[in-house]
């Protein structure tokens, strides 16, 4: 047993020496500030996603229309920062596609990172761990299944996070009366709000 521990310590010491001789370790004082700044920016971006999603859902609850018009809303009272930004970038092709792609890539990458760090659990029992060179084939298969569920969830998530852009984007329509008025297409309608519909929507949402 002591020999095994000594062998493990020797391997760890050799690994530390290899890392210390690497160029990546020698340049740590250069990339470390960049790493910190990037981490802060990604945290702020995640916070922006949370705030936008929260404001969008609150706005849906306040101005709920009916079950038949589940994606329609009443008057807009709360701003959705991400929806406003992506809809505005739709005027400059293809900036909106780039921003939307970065948003979806961020969600998928963070989901994968979370699964890699936490592993796969069944209630309180850890079923599989993810580590380089030691991951079981069953764990990879389970990870693939979870990724399919994540992609399906993103389809509904996009409608909640950026409702205006996902439904109409930067489209306009012309209403012809005495004069031609060009207005943006929107999912906002003016109808009364009933309490029973609001309760049903809250049950559907949560």
Automatic annotation (TrEMBL):
The keyword Nuclease does not apply. InterPro entries: LMBD1_LysCbl_Transport. GO terms for biological process: protein localization to vacuole. Keywords: Membrane, Transmembrane, Transmembrane helix. GO terms for cellular component: vacuolar membrane. The chain crosses the membrane at residues 29-55, 97-125, 146-168, 188-205. The keyword Membrane applies. This is Lysosomal cobalamin transporter.
């Amino acid at each position: 047993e002591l020999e095994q521990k000594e062998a493990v310590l020797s391997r760890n010491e050799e690994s530390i020496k290899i890392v210390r001789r690497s160029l990546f370790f020698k340049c740590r004082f250069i990339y470390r500030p960049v790493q910190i700044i990037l981490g802060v920016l990604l945290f702020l971006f995640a916070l922006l996603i949370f705030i936008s999603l929260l404001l969008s859902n609150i706005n849906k609850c306040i101005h709920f229309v009916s079950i038949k018009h589940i994606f329609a809303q009443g008057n807009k009272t709360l701003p959705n920062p991400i929806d406003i930004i992506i809809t505005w970038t739709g005027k400059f092709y293809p900036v909106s596609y780039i921003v939307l792609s970065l948003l979806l890539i961020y969600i998928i990458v963070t989901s994968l990172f979370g699964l890699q760090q936490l592993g796969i659990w069944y209630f309180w029992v850890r079923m599989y761990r993810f580590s380089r060179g030691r991951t079981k084939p069953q764990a990879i298969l389970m990870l693939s299944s979870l990724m399919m569920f994540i992609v399906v969830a993103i389809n509904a998530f996009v409608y909640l996070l950026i409702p205006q852009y996902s439904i109409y984007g930067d489209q306009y329509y012309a209403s012809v009366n005495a004069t031609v008025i060009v207005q943006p297409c929107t999912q906002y309608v003016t109808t009364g709000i009933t309490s029973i519909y609001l309760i049903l929507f809250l049950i559907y949402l949560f």
